[in-house]
Amino acid sequence: MGCVIVSTDGQLLGAGATQRTGGPHAEIMALRDAQARGHSVAGATAYVTLEPCSHQGRTGPCCDALIAAGIKKVVASLTDPNPRVGGQGFERLRAAGIEVEVGPGAAESRELNIGFFSRMVRGTPWVRMKVAASLDGQTALENGTSQWITSAPARADGHAWRARACVVLTGIGTVLEDNPRLDVREVDTPRQPQLLVVDSRLETPLDAHLFIAGRAITIYAAVPNDVKKAALEARGATVIYCPGRQPGTEGKVDLAAMLRDLATREINEIHVEAGHKLNGSLVREGLVDEFLLYLAPKLLGAGRGMVNIGPLAELSQAIELEFRETTMIGPDLRILARIPGRDRF
Ligand SMILES: NC(=O)c1ccc[n+]([C@@H]2O[C@H](COP(=O)([O-])OP(=O)(O)OC[C@H]3O[C@@H](n4cnc5c(N)ncnc54)[C@H](OP(=O)(O)O)[C@@H]3O)[C@@H](O)[C@H]2O)c1
Q: Which of 50, 75, 118, 157 is 20 to 30 A away from residue 109, measured at CA?
């Protein structure tokens, strides 16, 4: 979330963004910024992406801070989607005599914070699946080789998308075949996203490259193995048993339950970078909201596709997408595609 404070004559007085979970909200950061620049904000207007909070929470009510600072008007793009508090911030500001305008930039603000809205309204994070493939849709050769199909600029761009997510999610197949780090290296980032591995039988090697000092790692498993669990936890991972209970899902992680669990852990946005098997399970179960595809201008012929969902019997069974954006990244094509209607919540 963001906040910009502007004087009546249009001068920028302070700006701020919400800090990590538990940190100060955007309004507090903007007020501090104005103070650090030596500006008084009395009589100024605060432009915010989201309704200022009126509840104590972890950082104290932003409404009270705005009122105390003498802000005269608040322009907010969106009402807080949390049904327990939505609208209360505006009421509190109006009761203190502050003019409130709601709506400008609503679509853009919602898109920027789509994970937060998803968690608040649907109770699950927003799931974006990243795939790097050849033009004929192969993500790896039949023998598993996949490094590198796309170019260095496309990989760096992918790191920027990793950086904006709360969690990077992968599957045990990718861990065992590629031994990847799956951290953000190619772009500057104030923090590393958490790493999440779907590893039904706790096969993650204790010396896997993904164990990076200081990064949070969570492993969702289905088959209890408390000896291996203890060994992984000694390496700093958190292991959560989340077994499937429906017929046919025994021995595998319940992916839908995993997403609901992640929402309770305040995870807003998930960046999936897995192989075709886990991708296929997530897509088949209807758990993916959008795709971030990098297509290299090359053909690989037979190999491993993007999502293991077939074979379909009829074209009507196809999973329909809509292209939202196409951009050249170096020699590769980046496509953002969304499942129609997934963002209507
Ligand atoms: N180009 C790219 O964008 C990209 C990205 C990542 C990886 N890759 C490539 O993908 C290859 C690995 O592919 P992969 O498909 O074997 O790896 P994966 O999808 O990362 O992981 C496969 C594992 O996921 C498990 N899985 C599937 N559905 C599940 C569910 N519902 N619950 C729990 N576990 C589930 C499978 O378990 P079961 O065996 O029990 O079914 C399987 O062992 C590597 O060659 C890697 O280089 C490519």
A: 157
Beta pairing, strands 12-17 & 2-6: antiparallel
Contact present, 166 and 269 (Cβ < 8 Å): yes
The β-bridge partners of 337 are 291, 323
Residue with CA nearest ligand 1 atom 11: 275
- Atom 45 in ligand 1: which residue has the minimum CA distance? 144
Report how far residue 64's alpha carbon sits from residue 26's, in angstroms, rounded to the nearest whole number: 14
Interatomic CA distance for residues 71 and 26, integer angstroms: 15
Is 293 touching ligand 1 by the criterion CB < 6 Å? no
In this structure, the residue with its CA closest to atom 9 of ligand 1 is 275
Between CA 325 and CA 25 the distance in angstroms is 31
Strand partners, 217: 195, 237
Shortest-distance atom of ligand 1 to CA 281: 28
Task: Please work out whether the CB of residue 128 comes within 6 Å of at least one atom of ligand 1.
Answer: no
Q: Determine the atom of ligand 1 nearest the C-alpha atom of 171.
A: 20
Atom of ligand 1 nearest to the CA of 145: 45
| Count of helix runs (H) and strand runs (E) in the chain | 10, 16
Nearest to residue 130, comparing CAs of 284, 302, 269? Answer: 269
Mutational pocket test of ligand 1: of 145, 148, 169, 174, the residue with most ligand atoms within 8 Å of the beta carbon: 174
**How many CA atoms lie within 13 Å of 256's alpha carbon, on the beta-carbon side?**
10
